[in-house]
């Protein structure tokens, strides 16, 4: 296969991959590399679709944030987008834009997550409290917010 044919195939593959779902530049590059294209061909194909506006990391980040802003903490969303290869400044810009459109209430989200597991006023033993705290911390909530909301909800740890 000639270089031109390979280039055309890589570009076609990039377009086919974008038909099914939006992707980040890194995500598309990784998929093209896994499909057996060289790094040079993958970069050319990504540049090609980017020139047409078919791929845009800022748009991807904004859509991602808007879809998850009521389900996940800010920190967790930043972590996930970083893992998808989007740089911190792009994520920050998209977050600020999303906040203008829809203000997230992390404390309300934290309350919702706690209420799924325990009623307000519940008394937990040390093990249950550790498990709840770990569950919330792994979802990106800050310690101060977790303890503050637990206190507001009157969820306490019983001494054993």
Structural account:
The chain is an all-alpha fold. It has 9 helices and 2 strands; from the N terminus they run αααααααβααβ. Strands 1-2 form a two-stranded parallel sheet. The relative contact order is 0.10. Modulates RecA activity. Belongs to the RecX family.
Short description:
This protein is mainly alpha-helical and 160 residues long.
Question: What's the SSE blueprint?
Answer:
Blueprint: H1 3-20, H2 25-34, H3 39-51, H4 57-68, H5 74-83, H6 88-101, H7 106-117, E1 123-124, H8 126-138, H9 143-152, E2 156-157
Parallel strand pairs: 1-2
Helix pairs in contact: 1-3, 2-3, 4-6, 7-9
Q: How would you sum up the major sheet?
A: 2 strands, parallel
Q: N-to-C terminal Cα separation, in Å?
A: 73 Å
For the residues shown, what is the average pLDDT?
Answer: 88
- Shape summary: elongated
Return the structural class: mainly alpha
User: What assembly state would you assign to the polypeptide chains in this entry?
Assistant: single chain
The tally of beta strands, per DSSP, is 2
Helical stretch count? 9
Integer count of domains: 3
How would you spell out the order of helices and strands?
Answer: HHHHHHHEHHE
- The side-by-side strand order for the widest beta sheet comes to 1-2
Q: Name the beta content range.
A: under 5%
What is the radius of gyration computed over CA atoms, rounded to a whole number of angstroms?
Answer: 22 Å
Unreliable stretches (pLDDT < 50, length at least 5) are none
How much helix is in the residues?
A: over 70%
């Amino acid at each position: 296969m000639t270089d031109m044919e390979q280039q055309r195939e890589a570009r076609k593959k990039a377009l086919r991959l974008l038909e099914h779902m939006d992707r980040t530049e890194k995500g598309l590059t990784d998929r093209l590399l896994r499909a057996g294209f060289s790094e040079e061909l993958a970069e050319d194909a990504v540049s090609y679709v980017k020139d047409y506006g078919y791929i845009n990391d800022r748009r991807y980040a904004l859509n991602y944030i808007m879809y998850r802003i009521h389900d996940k903490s800010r920190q967790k969303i930043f972590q996930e987008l970083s893992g998808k290869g989007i740089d911190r400044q792009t994520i920050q810009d998209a977050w600020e834009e999303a906040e203008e459109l829809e203000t997230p209430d992390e404390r309300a989200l934290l309350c919702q997550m706690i209420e799924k597991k325990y009623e307000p006023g519940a008394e937990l033993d040390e093990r249950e409290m550790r498990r709840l705290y770990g569950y919330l911390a792994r979802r990106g909530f800050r310690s101060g917010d977790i303890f503050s909301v637990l206190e507001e909800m009157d969820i306490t740890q019983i001494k054993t």
